[in-house]
Amino acid sequence: MWGSDDEGGEEYLFKIVIIGDSAVGKSNLLSRYARNEFNMHSKATIGVEFQTQCLEIDSKEVKAQIWDTAGQERFRAVTSAYYRGAVGALIVYDISRRTTFDSVGRWLDELKTHCDTTVAMMLVGNKCDLENIRAVSVEEGKSLAEAEGLFFMETSALDSTNVKTAFEMVIREIY
Ligand code: GTP
Ligand code: MG
Questions:
Q1: Are strands 2-4 and 60-69 parallel, antiparallel or unpaired?
Q2: pLDDT at 9 over 70
Q3: What was the pLDDT predicted at 95?
Q4: Which tens digit of pLDDT belongs to each residue from 68-120?
Q5: What's the pLDDT tens digit per position in 128-143?
Q6: Whose CA is nearest to atom 29 of ligand 1?
Q7: SS3 for the chain, per residue?
Q8: What is the pTM of this model?
Q9: Which atom from ligand 1 is nearest to the alpha carbon of 41?
Q10: Which residues line ligand 1 (CB under 6 A)?
Q11: Vertex 31, ends 120 and 84: CA angle to 5°?
């Protein structure tokens, strides 16, 4: 986190990381939030990508640098570098695939190994547009989040449900 004072106004830069199993929709959540884009046929992420998004909170300019990496182990970059300096995290699963919810504990362990306890964390159940093939109930998501002390939200990168809200809740919590 950096605070500066050029041009008379304060400026903040926050690093936020997105983690979770492959194909849960991490990259599409980021592209929906940062560029209002969705790709039905997006390829698995290789390495690391990031986008910077500016927003105004209490008339201060806040920049969120949001990092997205591969869910697949073989495509991931150096783990410690990915997490370094992060002050917020979105842990994403896919509500239509149970295994991705079962993995949340492992992602949390990794996050806690590499970040300090003050990091603002949100559990995100993505693809809530797929109600007809839902495999994880809203209650299960909520209670896991409560047990682990995380915020919780269901989102859809496809139809935009809660995407902005989820990112901005984490950013506001940090700020
Ligand atoms: P890795 O980069 O391999 O870790 O995957 P990822 O988590 O970045 O997943 P990605 O964003 O590439 O999305 C995987 C697939 O799910 C793509 O076919 C997307 O179009 C689809 N998808 C992503 N978000 C949603 C959503 O909210 N609803 C639906 N129905 N499909 C989605
Ligand atoms: Mg990706």
A1: unpaired
A2: no
A3: 98
A4: 999 998 888 788 999 999 999 999 999 999 999 999 999 999 999 999 889 99
A5: 999 999 999 999 999 9
A6: 127
A7: CEEECHHHCCEEEEEEEEECCCCCCHHHHHHHHHHCCCCCCCCCCCCEEEEEEEEEECCEEEEEEEEEECCCHHHCCCHHHHHCCCCEEEEEEECCCHHHHHCHHHHHHHHHHHCCCCCEEEEEEECCCCHHHCCCCHHHHHHHHHHHCCEEEECCCCCCCCHHHHHHHHHHHHC
A8: 0.94
A9: 18
A10: 22-28, 39-42, 44-45, 70-72, 126-127, 129-130, 156-158
A11: 40
Tokens representing 8 are: 């008379």
Determine the residue type at 29. Answer: L
**Number of residues in the chain:** 175
Going from the Cα of 62 to the center of ligand 1, the distance in angstroms, rounded, reads 27
Structure confidence at residue 12 (pLDDT): 86
